[in-house]
């Protein structure tokens, strides 16, 4: 993998890591609702949900919460 690809994948976090980042203030169903209804940035790779930490931080700071 080149440095751009490695950098891209190093920014991806799992649902559990996102919940920890948000200090468990929100539940999994809430996060899933944000993804479905409010266009929270995410990727699905081989059926697994991945979230870009930088994109989510920007999304949250943009007043989406």
Question: Features of this protein?
Answer:
single chain, 15% strand, 65 residues, 3 strands, alpha+beta, 4 helices, 3-stranded antiparallel beta sheet
What does this structure look like?
The protein is an alpha+beta fold and 65 residues long. It is built from 4 helices and 3 strands; from the N terminus they run H-E-H-H-E-E-H. The protein has a 3-stranded antiparallel β-sheet with strand order 1-3-2. Strand 2 (43-45) and strand 3 form a beta hairpin. The chain is globular and about 35 Å long. The model has no long low-confidence stretch (mean pLDDT 85).
Q: In total, how many domains does the architecture comprise?
A: 1
Number of helical segments with 4 or more residues? 4
Structural class: alpha+beta
| Poorly predicted regions | none
| Range of strand content | 15-25%
The N- and C-terminal alpha carbons lie at a distance of: 35 Å
Question: How does the overall form come out from the CA principal axes?
Answer: globular
Instruction: From the alpha carbons, calculate the radius of gyration and give it in angstroms.
Output: 12 Å
Task: Name the average pLDDT.
Answer: 85
Helix percentage: 55-70%
* Count of beta strands: 3
Largest sheet: 3 strands, antiparallel
Order of helices and strands: HEHHEEH
Strand order of the largest sheet: 1-3-2
